[in-house]
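go over whats below:
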Amino acid sequence: MESNKYSTDELINHNEPWYNQVKIFNMPILWFLGFSAIVIAAMYMEILPGGMIGSLIVMMVLGELFGWIGDHTPIVKSFLGGGAIVAIFGSAFLVYSGIMPEYTVTMINDFMTSGEFLNFYIAALITGSILGMNSKTLKVAGARFALPLFSAVIASILLAGVIGLIIGYGFRDAIILIAMPIMGGGMGAGAVPMSQVYSEILGNDPSYYISILVPALALGNVFAIICAGLLDMLGKKVPSLTGNGELMAGFKVGSDKKINYDIKLMGVGVLVALTFYIAGQILGLIIPLHPYALMIILVAALKIFDLLPDFIEEAANQWYQFVAKNWTLALLIGIGIAYTDLETVIAAISFEYIILVASVVIGAIIGAGGVGKLVGFKPIESAITAGLCMANMGGTGDVAVLSAAKRMELMPFAQLSSRLGGALILVIAGLLVPLFM
């Protein structure tokens, strides 16, 4: 009975020395380092169990450690995205330098790709964040979202073209080789089909164009993550520009009521999230849209028309909260290991290339933020969702950008940008490439 006298934090901090008050992953730092030492030792002894157990424990330990370092390092925490960017590029460096054992890299890569941990995570975020929204937000914001999205594309293309013309790279090449792949919705939904479009129109094998498009895509993702952190900082300096995670003024994303977490409801939430993910896959066989986009439309329609009972909505919201709070940094480690090729990023670095990539990302921010304000959105949230989430690497980039911006609740709008916006870019590519070439 005596142990119920204090909350968890009070039990940890009550009359404790500093090393018990400094916490990583909600536990005193020495305890966390003790658990981490066991995991890291097992990793180098190559005795980690395969599959989810070995992969997830390494990702959680490294994610929380790198995240804590990034969130407590001056300049990095203020200007470069904090823990999110350290988790991604710290883990990518472990692979690039050979510090992480090859068998661990392979195991985590398999867990992220064929094991579909990324889809598992995003399914929870999409379902829970939509069902936790105020339905008015979906009705009003959803109808207006296309305008800042389209404006982000136009502004980024034009700015990149003009900058390319000024520095001698070329108006055409800046648009086709840099702006289009960056704004294309990632690898699977963007660069890969775009290479097919270029191949059909211009000749050459698709792999030739992939090698040209990927550096722009990778570096654009870096800039998008950094800019997300800067926009979060700008919002703190100029509060009138941000809704602190709310896309529209006066509309709360999520419920105002206090959440009473229920383990049984979270179990229901897992079932709900995965079922809607599967429903999106089924609809994708019939409707020519990305399954994520179809999943968003399905869940949003059920929410708008109030077709689900309250307990289903609450269950999905609680599961989303659990996943977002406990596995985001772990996922970012997986993104760094499985999806971030540091060698490609380094090879692409040159002054003019950096300027052009930056111009694409800045154009997306200006277009989405400016037009977003005109249609009633908060400029920073509009710039992040309709702008930066168009300029990143699809689903993995959405997680990284929203994590750096500390606005994970905006995932449904981020996914609309990546999926529907990516499809828009493919259409534009098919129209522009013949004209330019």
Q: What stands out?
A: Residues 194 and 426 are 6 Å apart (CA to CA). The first strand starts at residue 23 and ends at 24.
